[in-house]
Amino acid sequence: GQNIDQPTEMTATEGAIVQINCTYQTSGFNGLFWYQQHAGEAPTFLSYNVLDGLEEKGRFSSFLSRSKGYSYLLLKELQMKDSASYLCAVKDSNYQLIWGAGTKLIIKP
Amino acid sequence: GAVVSQHPSWVICKSGTSVKIECRSLDFQATTMFWYRQFPKQSLMLMATSNEGSKATYEQGVEKDKFLINHASLTLSTLTVTSAHPEDSSFYICSAGTPDRNTEAFFGQGTRLTVV
Question: Is the CB of residue B54 less than 8 Å from the CB of residue B44?
Fold first, then answer.
């Protein structure tokens, strides 16, 4: 079956750095996405990786290793507004998005 | 990025009534639209995939007669929850995209449905 794993919850301190990991097993691979979702709102797109390596976008970076079925989202200079759920999703061979359960990130002052 | 508009953002209805949720792609033609349901503290669960001009493809366990999906044009898809029950109360989200590998899904704002 298809499976995406990410930690359920993480806690970090304002101003610090946090890394959220995601491992996946899917039938085919056509890219990995990271989304941010605040409670009661729809997800918003953060990043897309289809080749191995690091993609940097401001305070957020995303890394992919296809051979290991592994990705991480790195958040730097954490702000209170970064408290949210972070969803990892993979497009399979049919270009369908397979979603992880999300990681709830709690930022403490 | 592209804009997807979902309406209404929230609705309260009585048990047994039907509710229609609209999803519009405002600045692009969406050949495919996806309908998701999300229960509290859970991830998005795909309910169905709709392609313009054809019948929707429902995920296993989703009743097609209860969740009616219509994708009559390249900019509009609707989800109708028929004979709603309290257990149908959830957050419903649509997304739209084109089937090329570099397009992320563009999400509507979501609809909070409460059945009383």
Answer: no
CA of B81: how far to CAs of A63, B32, B87, B115, in Å? 39, 20, 12, 11
pLDDT at A27: 92
Inter-chain touch B101–A50, beta carbons under 8 Å: yes
Distance, CA of A102 to CA of B7 (rounded, Å): 25
Give one DSSP letter per residue of chain A, joined into a string: --EEE--SEEEEETTS-EEEEEEEE-SS-S-EEEEEE-TTS--EEEEEE-SSEEEEETTEEEEEETTTTEEEEEE-S--GGG-EEEEEEEE-TTS-EEE---EEEEEE-
pLDDT in tens, B31-66: 788 899 998 878 788 899 888 778 899 999 999 999
A:51-70 residues touching chain B, CB 8 A cutoff: none
Which among B99, B101, B107 has CB closest to A42?
B107
Q: Does A100 touch chain B (CB under 8 A)?
A: yes
- Length of chain A measured in residues: 109
